[in-house]
Amino acid sequence: MLATPPVAQKLNVVPFVSVDHMMKLVLSVGIERFLTELSGVVEDDFRRWEHFDKTPRVAAHSPDGVIELMPTSDGAAYSFKYVNGHPKNTRSGLQTVTAFGVLADVESGYPVLLTEMTILTALRTAATSAVAAKHLAARGARTMAIIGNGAQAEFQALAFKALLGIDRLRLYDIDPTASEKCRRNLAGFGFEITLCGSTEEAVQGAEIITTVTADKQYATILTDNLVGAGVHINAVGGDCPGKTELHADILHRAAIFVEYPPQTRIEGEIQQLAPDHPVTELWQVIAGQAEGRRDPSQITLFDSVGFATEDFSALRYVRSKLAGTAFFEELDLVADPDEPRDLFGMLLRAQHA
Question: Catalytic annotation on 74?
Fold first, then answer.
C-alpha cells in the first residue's frame, strides 16, 4: 500500500496542484532547495531502478510535434505523465512543452495526486541532469556553457549551481533576446554570466556543455572540434526521433550514459549510431555497478531524453511537500457511491437531490 498520504484525504477526493499552487510551493521551499531535494529523490529512485516497471513512452508523432504518455510503477505506486513537444508553438505564444501527471496507489487503483507538470518537468529535467553530472563531470567544474537559452536554461543553471557549485555561465542562442532573457532571470543568483555570439565562443573554457535547443530536426549544435578533453556534455534537447543536437563524431569519442537504452536508441543522440553501440545506463553508475568518469581527460556524455521514473520521483516528492500547506485543492475526481455496486443509484439520488 502507498505510504500514508501527507494530506488528509478521502478516497474520492484527490489533491490537485494547479500551476499557481506549484509556483507557490516551489517558491516557499526555495528554488535551489527544491532542486536539491528533488535531485535526492531522483537519485534514490535510480538506485532502486530494478524495482520499476519500465517501458518506452507511448508517443503519437505529427509533423508539428509529439504527444506522449510516460507510465511506470514500483509496485506500490503508479504514475504517468501526459506531455507534448511542439517547437512551433512559440510562434503563436504557446509553450513548446506542457504536461500534467498522476500518482496512484497500486493496491486500490485510486489516484492520490493530480498535478501540473509543465513547471515540474522543467525542474525534474534539470535535477536529473545535475545528478548525472554529479557522477560524470570532472571534479571542481565551475563553468558551464548553455547552448539554447529557452524555457529550460535557467532551471539547468540553478540545478548545476545547487548540486555542483557551477557559478560561471556562458550563454548562446541563435536568438540573442533569449540569452538576454536568461541573464536577466538569473541576475541575483550568484552567477558570473557571459553572453556569447556563437557556439564556438560559448564553449571556450567550459568544463560542462549543456545543449538544450527546441527545433525538431537533425541539427548539429555542437561539432567535434569544439569538444576538448575532460568535457562533460549534458545533451538535453535531442529527445525524439528525428531530433538531435550533436555531430556523430562526438559520440564516437565520448563515453555515453543513458537512462533507458530501448527509449534512448529511438529518441536520443545515439539514434545516429549502430543499435549495438555500447552505452552505460546511468542507474548502474549511481548504484555503484558501473564506472562513471574514468579519468580527467575523458569526454563523458549524458544522452538525456527523460524517463518515466524521473516523473515518478517528482510526483512523490511534490506529494511529500504538501502537508501543512495550502498549495493544493481537493478535487472531486472519483465516484464514491454509498454502495460500491450501485453506481447508477448514485446518479438517481443526485437527480432527486
Answer: no
